[in-house]
Every structure is written in structure tokens, then in C-alpha cells.
């Protein structure tokens, strides 16, 4: 389905985003009178159909924020596992998607935030470190922000790192990454949660933390 112009009923459409010779499948949903828009950047082995991301996206739309869920790689690219962990490639791809998004009539003028998971969080922070990206806020859920390396110090968008309390190694990596951030930032630990937040109630806790941060800054 082609994109429709945002109006009284908002925007909801399956779209194809052209990026550097590739075509990426995406779902764009913007509620009526949206205050901003959040781009989801999934990690390795996930897609725009991830139930966890879909859950968070619904929560954000209920709070008046639009969402864009897209596949960072097309099917052929995903067959090369090296692409899945190439943070520079993913960050560049995300930057192209952000540039495309700003040309869409339905998204015109809306501040944009990023929600990243796993390696997608590193790509989100890398892309946000480019001042031209004009990113209003970043949230990482169970992410690997450490993989953004030296780009962390260049991030200016308020950044929230959400980590499961039982995800010990990733928690250490997030705390180390937070020490390199010079922007406003916070680390929130969800007690009893492992890496995928599969324990009862933990995904909901993480989603509420993400929603509150994004509603605060993406307006």
C-alpha cells in the first residue's frame, strides 16, 4: 500500500524506502495530530515484525507519537551475516532512511526520535552523532551502545539506556558506554529481566520507560 497523507484519521501504510540501490520494506503509522515520530532500529536477527517492537510501537502511538518500523537490510543482504554486525553500514542505512523520512508530507515538521535494540542501538547512536541527522532523543533497549565506539561522545540527543537486571554482561557494557556519553543520559535497569525481556511484566516496564523518555523529548 502506498503512503497516504496525514489527516483526521492519521497515516498508516506499508511503504518501500529506496536507499543506495536497495529497497527496504517499512510500516509508517502516524496518529492524528502526532507530536513527533519514532524510528525503530532493530538488532541482529529481528525485523519490523518483531512482537516486542510492535508492542512498544503501539504504546508510543497511543501516547501521540508516530512510528516507522523498517528492515535495515533486504533479504539478500541478510544472508551475509557480516552485514548484520556491520554497525557502520547499518548507521549509514539509518541515516538514509531519516533523510527519506523528512521528505514525506505526513512526517513534515515532526521531531524524530530513535528506538534501538541490540546492535540496532549502536547504529542509532552512531547515526545520531551526526548533527545533520537532527535526532531529538534516543532510547536503547537491551542494546549494545558500546559498539558505537568513539561516536558516543558526539551524540547530543538525550539518551536512555534500558537494560535487564539479569543481563549482566550487557549491563556492564551499557554502563561503560554511558560513561562516554556527554549528552543528557540515564541508565535504567529493569529488575529480573534478561536480554530479551521475556520475563513476565519486564517488557511492559521497559516499554513504559521508553515511552516516557520519548514523549518527554520528541515533541
UniProtKB/TrEMBL annotation:
Entry protein name: Dienelactone hydrolase domain-containing protein
Domain Dienelactone hydrolase, first and last residues per copy: 92-202
UniProt keyword Hydrolase, yes or no: yes
Pfam families, A to Z: DLH
Entries under InterPro entries matching the protein: AB_hydrolase_fold (IPR029058), Dienelactn_hydro (IPR002925), FrsA_esterase (IPR050261)
UniProt cross-references to SUPFAM superfamilies, sorted A to Z: alpha/beta-Hydrolases
Family: Belongs to the AB hydrolase superfamily.
Keywords: Hydrolase
GO terms of molecular function: carboxylic ester hydrolase activity
Entry-linked Gene3D superfamilies: alpha/beta hydrolase
Amino acid at each position: 500500500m502506498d503512503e497516504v497523507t496525514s489527516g483526521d484519521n492519521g497515516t498508516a501504510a506499508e511503504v518501500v524506502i529506496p536507499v543506495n540501490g536497495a529497497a527496504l520494506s517499512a510500516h509508517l503509522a502516524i496518529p492524528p495530530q502526532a507530536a513527533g515520530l519514532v524510528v525503530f532500529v532493530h538488532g541482529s536477527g529481528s525485523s519490523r515484525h518483531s512482537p516486542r517492537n510492535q508492542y512498544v510501537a503501539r504504546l508510543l502511538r497511543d501516547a501521540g507519537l508516530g512510528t516507522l518500523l523498517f528492515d535495515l537490510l533486504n533479504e539478500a543482504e541478510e544472508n551475509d551475516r557480516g552485514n548484520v554486525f556491520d554497525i557502520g553500514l547499518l548507521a549509514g542505512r539509518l541515516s538514509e532512511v531519516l533523510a527519506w523520512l523528512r521528505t514525506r508530507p505526513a512526517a513534515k515538521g515532526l521531531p524524530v526520535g530513535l528506538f534501538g535494540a541490540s546492535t540496532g542501538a549502536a547504529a542509532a547512536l552512531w547515526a545520531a552523532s551526526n548533527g545533520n541527522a537532527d535526532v531529538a532523543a534516543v532510547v536503547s533497549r537491551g542494546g549494545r551502545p558500546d559498539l558505537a565506539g568513539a561516536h558516543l561522545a558526539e551524540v547530543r540527543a538525550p539518551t536512555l539506556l534500558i537494560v535487564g537486571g539479569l543481563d549482566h554482561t550487557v549491563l556492564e557494557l551499557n554502563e561503560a558506554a554511558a560513561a562516554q556519553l556527554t549528552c543528557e543520559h540515564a541508565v535504567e535497569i529493569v529488575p529480573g529481566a534478561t536480554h530479551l525481556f521475556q520475563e513476565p511484566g519486564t517488557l511492559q516496564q521497559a516499554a513504559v520507560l521508553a515511552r516516557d523518555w520519548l514523549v518527554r523529548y520528541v515533541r
